[in-house]
DNA sequence: TCGGGTAACTAG
DNA sequence: CATCGCTAGTTACCCGA
């Protein structure tokens, strides 16, 4: 694929096009080749329900304990979790009934880690993001999350709602019609059914529920039985509807018109009614025909009320998903990532199982295979009726003047059209150019087919290059067949099964295979024999060498005064000269390349670990137009969430994050020629280290905001935002290698603060399960409950499971060591509503209080000995600030302790600790752990201030 | 001379 | 109306220890 042959950055090269046109008048018939492919559809098809006998969660009550545990395990499996939640039967229950196949605990993780053992199936070749996994962002709540939480309660709620819906759909295997799609609903006061039930109904049917009515009118509908005069005034600009609107809409499986359910007939509603004063029957008929989405009236209403931005830019709530769904480059990148993580492992398994004896030869035969203008070909085939790409000039594009051409066929290229060119330019060159739609689904389908076909050949190795392009090692195969025969077979097979043509190039190394492919396009093949390497290279342009781009070419021009160079011309330049001009590495590479030398290996069996992901980034350089810092911070929060989702999907955590900002270049126009494009920009990037591994969205978001404030760019000049997680390790590796322990487990490990769980110091046998505090009341042994899995469940489900386990006396009291996350969520949910907050008469008789309350202590020192705790904290601080900052494990304890203080309303003690650290910080400005501690203390300060603020606000 | 952070470049 | 200019990886370069 050739993506950049004609990229138009910021300026339209009309004059160049003119030149081209004039030149073409003189002579007809240039050709070139190339093509692009890309992109994955975000198919929103529903997740397949688990059909393995998972019952409706409403049925919990009727199961016996064995069945219940089995049920829970199936739930966790249905969510794609690697391990069962509960790993054996409760002690009290008769052993081993229906659950024996789930007793494998963490022992199977190692084998799962790198290669998948499953037989050939769709999953192995899954190229796209599985929608079922997308919204399972973990609920880890750590320090950074306070900040986020208080700022974005609503977003948090919606994330949890999404997970809840996902989970329920999976567990029940039911589809709920998205009746309330696009509706943002607020519930006011007492209703029947009550708010909690309405909430669930709304989110299950595609709606968004908000628990607070934002200042800027973010709700599309309000549900209420009655309204006080005060509220009437307050809600005068909303559609206030009776709860029956919800229930009856669900019953009839479509959105009933709101006008029939109004609680108040205010001006706003009146107006609407007037314009919609047609008979209701007709109204409803229209809706059912067009679906509520296309109902022009409803759309209008939403736009007015939700305060939508005029256009789909970065301020739009769905901007990110919309953008990625339509971005060819995003699809291209994620396909490649998926190929490397999924297909590569499958290829390794397949090749290994064949046990192909390695041919004893030092010279290898490498083959490069690539579709001819992939997107254009596939889109033309999909067109109804199919288009003959050999006679009609076509291209794939979204279709505006400044829309990029993702791919054009060779007929169009003959007229001068190039991939990456803007449609307007291409139309000037070729007025009869036919525009085709993107067909991301089909590209992906063909790609899977392609790779299956390749794997069918007896190859030594295969390295995916892109969705439509792969490198093969055919050394063994070429013992019995000539490269030409092999290439012919591949071309025929692919043509037969995909109806698309591919080109093949082969030679003694990767470099020559690539150059041969270039020569072979379109729809051809070329083999560079060992003894004709130099002759072949005589006909190759320097710019066609892999890794040689426009910058290097222009450097060649300015530094060596060679333009339009042939490879041959570079042979006379010494290695030293090349190195001094292009840098040591690039210089040597060029020196070798022009002699046909390349030692790049594609042996995936020899070094599989080389293909493991080292970083994960998200770039948005289109549609970025902000007015305020608040908008940017919200956007950063969204990016952090997306990052969490993507990291979760690949089971990785990172210890450093980078924010890169693009701002308009001072010389560039405010509005670049490309609609919502970035234009010519300046870039800044900055990296922060966490000191521990994480993917928690709150932490990422907090860190990003800090960096953003530090960079402090002119908001209105922002044109691009990228974030990148670096220093990645897989979850499993982190556990196996004990990277936690590697990270300065704090001096007091040996003395003052003996951790009371010796096994936690042995990473190799580190238990998945936490050690409980309360002995005795558990029907299930601690080792039987996998808290890691439990913690991955949506908090709503956690709550329900917890209640059910409690009811069965199987036990979770919420006081478990490594389950602070859950407690924090509970804690927050008590904070969310001012009304619910700290009922003054809370007593020990209050069951909720008993259930969630834990004696507050730190390192076994009870809160009553506060001075003792302060002393410990001081020592901890002094030791760890000389190291790399606080250890994650200690932070968990500390975190829990501080939460405890808040929970029992010990604001003074909380503040004393913040003050203690703040004072100590001043004296350690140069210490190694200063940054980490400083960040932590700042968080604490923020929390304190915000909690205090909340107190004042609600009059406590 | 190194190691770490940032910027630039390339590919598809 | 428009339009969806992504991302992983390598290398160069600069700085301070």
Automatic annotation (TrEMBL):
<keyword id="KW-0548">Nucleotidyltransferase</keyword>
<dbReference type="GO" id="GO:0006281">
    <property type="term" value="P:DNA repair"/>
</dbReference>
<dbReference type="GO" id="GO:0070987">
    <property type="term" value="P:error-free translesion synthesis"/>
</dbReference>
<feature type="domain" description="UmuC">
    <location>
        <begin position="366"/>
        <end position="549"/>
    </location>
</feature>
<feature type="region of interest" description="Disordered">
    <location>
        <begin position="23"/>
        <end position="62"/>
    </location>
</feature>
<dbReference type="GO" id="GO:0042276">
    <property type="term" value="P:error-prone translesion synthesis"/>
</dbReference>
<dbReference type="GO" id="GO:0003684">
    <property type="term" value="F:damaged DNA binding"/>
</dbReference>
<dbReference type="Pfam" id="PF00817">
    <property type="entry name" value="IMS"/>
</dbReference>
<keyword id="KW-0460">Magnesium</keyword>
<dbReference type="InterPro" id="IPR053848">
    <property type="entry name" value="IMS_HHH_1"/>
</dbReference>
<dbReference type="Pfam" id="PF16589">
    <property type="entry name" value="BRCT_2"/>
</dbReference>
<dbReference type="GO" id="GO:0005634">
    <property type="term" value="C:nucleus"/>
</dbReference>
<feature type="compositionally biased region" description="Polar residues">
    <location>
        <begin position="99"/>
        <end position="122"/>
    </location>
</feature>
<keyword id="KW-0227">DNA damage</keyword>
<comment type="function">
    <text>Deoxycytidyl transferase involved in DNA repair. Transfers a dCMP residue from dCTP to the 3'-end of a DNA primer in a template-dependent reaction. May assist in the first step in the bypass of abasic lesions by the insertion of a nucleotide opposite the lesion. Required for normal induction of mutations by physical and chemical agents. Involved in mitochondrial DNA mutagenesis.</text>
</comment>
<comment type="similarity">
    <text>Belongs to the DNA polymerase type-Y family.</text>
</comment>
<dbReference type="InterPro" id="IPR043128">
    <property type="entry name" value="Rev_trsase/Diguanyl_cyclase"/>
</dbReference>
<feature type="domain" description="BRCT">
    <location>
        <begin position="175"/>
        <end position="263"/>
    </location>
</feature>
<dbReference type="InterPro" id="IPR036420">
    <property type="entry name" value="BRCT_dom_sf"/>
</dbReference>
<dbReference type="Pfam" id="PF21999">
    <property type="entry name" value="IMS_HHH_1"/>
</dbReference>
<keyword id="KW-0237">DNA synthesis</keyword>
<feature type="compositionally biased region" description="Polar residues">
    <location>
        <begin position="36"/>
        <end position="59"/>
    </location>
</feature>
<dbReference type="GO" id="GO:0046872">
    <property type="term" value="F:metal ion binding"/>
</dbReference>
<dbReference type="Pfam" id="PF11799">
    <property type="entry name" value="IMS_C"/>
</dbReference>
<dbReference type="GO" id="GO:0003887">
    <property type="term" value="F:DNA-directed DNA polymerase activity"/>
</dbReference>
<feature type="region of interest" description="Disordered">
    <location>
        <begin position="87"/>
        <end position="122"/>
    </location>
</feature>
<keyword id="KW-0234">DNA repair</keyword>
<keyword id="KW-0539">Nucleus</keyword>
<dbReference type="InterPro" id="IPR017961">
    <property type="entry name" value="DNA_pol_Y-fam_little_finger"/>
</dbReference>
<dbReference type="InterPro" id="IPR001357">
    <property type="entry name" value="BRCT_dom"/>
</dbReference>
<dbReference type="InterPro" id="IPR036775">
    <property type="entry name" value="DNA_pol_Y-fam_lit_finger_sf"/>
</dbReference>
<keyword id="KW-0808">Transferase</keyword>
<protein>
    <recommendedName>
        <fullName>DNA repair protein REV1</fullName>
    </recommendedName>
</protein>
<dbReference type="InterPro" id="IPR043502">
    <property type="entry name" value="DNA/RNA_pol_sf"/>
</dbReference>
<dbReference type="InterPro" id="IPR001126">
    <property type="entry name" value="UmuC"/>
</dbReference>
<dbReference type="GO" id="GO:0017125">
    <property type="term" value="F:deoxycytidyl transferase activity"/>
</dbReference>
<keyword id="KW-0238">DNA-binding</keyword>
<keyword id="KW-0479">Metal-binding</keyword>
